[in-house]
Amino acid sequence: MPILKISNELSGVISTFSNKISNELQDNIDILVKNNDSFSLIYKNANSILLKNNYVLIKNIGFNKDKSLFEAFIKLFGSFYGESIEYADIRIECNYTACDYNLIELHNDDMIALEKMPNYGFIQVLKEDPLKLAKNGLVKILEVVNYLKYHDAELLEDLMSVKVPMMTYGINYNDANKEWTSLNETILYYSGKNDIHVRFDLGTIDTYYWQNKLEQPRKEKKMISDFLDTCKKFRKEFYIEQGDILIHNNKTTLHDRTQTAIELNLDGSFNSREIFVGFTKDYE
Ligand SMILES: [Fe+2]
To answer: What is the CA(35)–ligand 1 centre distance, in A?
Structure first.
């Protein structure tokens, strides 16, 4: 399993360090984290697993619920994507994907941004699901492609050549310049180095047909359904505990989340899963 468990000794050093720098400004925290030996050690080893395995789960890192430190940690892996760390809790009243209590289907994050989509995604669980229901799933697209080569070359050919319409309102939920963005692209594509990458978010395809009041062609619907069925053969599932950080390659993997629970308190408040989400990009 691609799990990097930090020893209590190393985690203790990180914890002491994070308390010491907690009042610094973000720019200083970024520099202090970059020059810290313990963080360098974690980065070096997490990155080795990430390059080989496309995702890694880090346990017992020694900090949690510290937005600035999480941001500085992410910046060890590349240029920071977007404006800030996103906070998401599961809610009954929710109008975007991350706070939805229902399952979230396999997808890439911000895939509508095409070559400007983030290359790594980072999730830290601030608070666990009250029933420990919520699990995160990951699929390495290379495993799907290798399987299709021998079991369904025709589907692979379609996924590499048939363009599918996709549409979103803004690139992500906190996009300041909200406008309708649409594109027509294949689900699988070659990156510069002959690696196969994936861009997929069922919601964006459904939005296109819904917005344009069009019926999705049956053939396209079947291709997507067959694609998802194949992906699910290779899906690996994790339960992420409080404080754990999951890092995934957003171009070579798809990710999802199972359904969640919401606990209702006497005073009418709720108790549900809370996460921080952040990204890096591989361009300036
Ligand atoms: Fe996502």
So the answer is: 30
